[in-house]
Amino acid sequence: MADKYERMLELLFQTDDWVTATELAEHLGVTTRSVRSYVAAAKSAAHPRAIVTASTAGYRLNREQYAEFLADSRERGSAAETPQDRVHHLIRRLTESQQGIDVHGLADSLFVSESTIEADLRKAKALIDEAGATLERRGSTVRLTGSEGARRRLLSALVQSESTQGMLDLEQIETEFALTGLGAFKTELIEALDAAGFFINEYGIDAVILHVAIAVDRARRDQHLPDAEATTVPERHRPIVEILDHLTREQFDVELTAADTDYLARLLITRVIAPGNGPAGETVVDGDDVATVRRIVELVLQEYVVDFRDEAFITRLAIHLGNLVARARENAHTRNPLTRSIKSSYPLIFDIAVYIASIVQKERGITVDDDEISYIALHLGSHLERVSRREERVSCTIVCPSYYDLHAILRTRVERELGSELSVEFVVTRTDVDPRELTSDLVISTIPTVALRDGVVVVQPFLTDDDIDAIRAAVSRVRRQRRRARITDELLEYFDPALFFTPPPGDDPESIIRGLGAALVEAGVVDDAYVSAALERERMSSTAFTETLAVPHAMGLAAERTAIALALSPTPIAWGDARVSVIAFIAFSAEGRARFQPLFDQFVDVFAARRDVAELVRDATDFDAFIARLAQLLERG
Fold it and tell me: With pLDDT > 70 as the criterion, what percentage of the chain qualifies?
């Protein structure tokens, strides 16, 4: 039960809105009765804290109470009340004992049956195997075997698996390893690295801080990395070793061996020291990595019609590629707390990152997971933001009657505060302006009567913070309406009654992709190789870009024409780590790809709202009803 209600709390954590029991049931794959049981169990576990609020609108998480509940849970720590707690306790005991632990004694100490401990051991074994260690069994004694590096990876995976939303909590790490001062250590480490000329990627630094805590904990038990497991640190990065050695002595009063500090330095180099910076601004990049990135950039241009041919970008991505390969070969992948949001908010960028990762994975013989793909996507997105804005600025007319230079003051303030988001086309100083003559996207007016047309924001002559917020919100509405208007006609032309299914032609991702693919083959849109490529793409990374929508497609192959085979499922289907109700198998033609790609993000955006999707699936009983309901959603957006 604990695992179930924790999954429910995770879903509630992802939204600030009310979530109905039906929506939770669909996402969890259970009945609404089970959801009510989970809510009751969560309330009981958190009592007297009211972590879940219920109303006729559904359920919502009380975030402050939930945070306090998590803190309480961490403090209880060794109580081992839930299956997750027991697995955690079991692994910690195994990593700390060289002789092993007795199953009978463990069951007695935790007040559970031996069969329960056996089930916990099976769960623990999955984590142990993944870390590269081994669980040995002799009679009633179980023992962990493997290298010291494997034990440390296991401890890291254990803590990270229990982090909220992928974000590591330094207080939780301190509690886990009985340490104090991790926050101060992190601050001093960043300052020292910055002073030495290194640029810091703070998305990855907490994972390294976790390894520092593990190293300190192991050193206090006189369990160090042997010299055979040491990694050579390049001479240019020796200052990092010195910094780590000094700070761990000073902050934690512990002696790390050279192998320990070299290992931690290697983690910093591959996870935290961002590309393009080093002592005296030094940039060191492997020639083979640069050649690989150059070739990838050309392939991306051909396949996605997106241009990344920029020397600075190529250098940054080449250094990142070298670090990624090093992490993969050491089985030391870095978690990315932004993975979910990047995937749902920027599906095109994420898809290009998947394409790049697939090339690297095949050529270098490694595995690239979603977290690493998301770091590639960050490189792509930051470059695109530097070279051009994702959307053009919104045009604006200011209406402000002339009184001394009041209208000029207003314009100056608007341009200073919002100049990157809108451009002022006209300034009207008359009081008798006809609103119908104002053709700009937005009208910012100090005259309330001008608000007879849409797109008018009435402000004070001297802009207040509320006025600026109101203008910024209006700019966002214009951009959204502009996007929706652009896809209303273009997107609908890609649908076909022969490619519409409700329910889907299958009950799992592979069977549905094959079923939708068969329809596309029959329609003459793609061949069997395209369907096989779509299945390969799905295995690389789930195409569930939101909690409700999956968009399977192939990479590197062109269809005869661009088309979408669509399936609606009244009962959500497990797809990766999501449960989706809409599956859109997209086939790209070579000439249509450039036209369709700009619509890709907006397409995903249309199906992002759970309630909109629920209405669409409920009302779209046939193709005509689907098109009518989709058009309404586009118009409403």
Answer: 89
